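pinned: reference chain
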Amino acid sequence: YEIKYLIGSDEADVFAGELAHRMDLDGHCPSGEGYLISSIYFDTADRELIRHSMSHPLYKEKLRMRAYGESKQDGDLVFLEIKKKFDGVIGKRRATMTLRQAEGFVDTGLKPKLEGYMNNQVAEEIAYFLMRHAVRASAYIGYSRLAFSGSKDFGLRVTFDRDIVARRGEASLRRPP
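pinned: its structure tokens
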């Protein structure tokens, strides 16, 4: 399950300070600093996927490309993710590939040549999604994330996203946030 709240910066600082005594910092931010996440969300030309999502259906799915750190180039590894939600329960599956492979996969619907780090089952699910939806890069969203995980409950995760940047034009991981 995923629950999101919008809180002010001061409240977030206090809350994060309290969590630091009760939870572990995410492996991506051992120094207590946030890390950059950049995502490209895909949709059809007539925005079919977001319109469906906004109608609060029992089932919905979306495709995104995600990267950590600064802007990416052809050979940099990224994640092509399919995210599904059914009756409030979220499932996220991701395949690791280079930026060039991920862009080619979305553009053509043809799976890239499988490398050792790729998950074939997830690639098949993404190919099926692409067969059903003619998508293109629709929006870029980037932010700095500070994340905590449960010390005893490993399924618990609390994240704080700041410095959010959104773009509809130039939806690419190649451009700096």
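why pinned: Helices lie at 9-19, 48-54, 99-108, 120-132. The chain has a mean pLDDT of 91.
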